[in-house]
Amino acid sequence: MAGGAIVNTGGGKEYPGKLTLFVFLTCVVAATGGLIFGYDIGISGGVTSMDSFLEKFFPEVYRKEKKDTSTNQYCKFDSQLLTTFTSSLYLAALIASFLASAVTRAFGRKWSMFGGGLVFLVGAALNGAARNILMLILGRILLGIGVGFANQVGLLDLILQ
Fold first, then answer.
1. Pairwise CA distance, residues 61 & 79, whole Å
2. Cα angle: 3, vertex 155, 135; to 5 degrees
């Protein structure tokens, strides 16, 4: 049956756990890692469809988009450079999440999260001040490192508490 649920009404074990401020803040910190990842997906998807952004950083994609009069929306942005811009964050986050465990083991969760947040902040500033595509991609890589650290260390923090 679609949408059904099984409810166990008998004999379950009760745990005396309470929702303390520490537990609540730990969950908020862990959720923040996923939040910044999802937020970046939404922002980068919106920005890469803006005419002013494409005209400044990807003029060849902008020209192709303006010449295309078809209604087909599939593969509208056929550009390796634009793909590199978009996927650089995800690749950096993947690699950083593997490396974050070693950094966390060496320096602890607090300093790992602080370092990841600092790298994310530098990447955001670099993207905000970008003048060319190289600055954009470098900023995205730094954002990816920050996201990878936040996800790995934040989830580890939630699991270990």
1. 7
2. 110
- 59: its two tokens: 């003029």
Tell me the C-alpha distance between 40 and 61, whole Å.
21
C-alpha torsion sign, points 60, 63, 66, 70: negative
CB of 153 within 8 A of CB of 116? yes
Indicate whether 4 pLDDT > 60. Answer: no
Give the number of other CB atoms < 10 A from CB of residue 85: 20
Amino acid at site 102: A
Question: How far apart are the two ends of the chain, measured CA to CA in Å?
Answer: 37
**74 Rama sector, left if φ>0, alpha if ψ -120 to 50, beta otherwise:** beta
Q: What is the pLDDT of residues 103-155, one digit of tens each?
A: 888 998 888 888 988 999 999 999 999 999 999 999 999 999 988 888 887 66
What is this structure's pTM? 0.74
Whether the pLDDT of residue 40 is over 90: the answer is no
* Measured CA distances, 136 to 38, 53, 86, 93 (Å): 19, 11, 10, 16
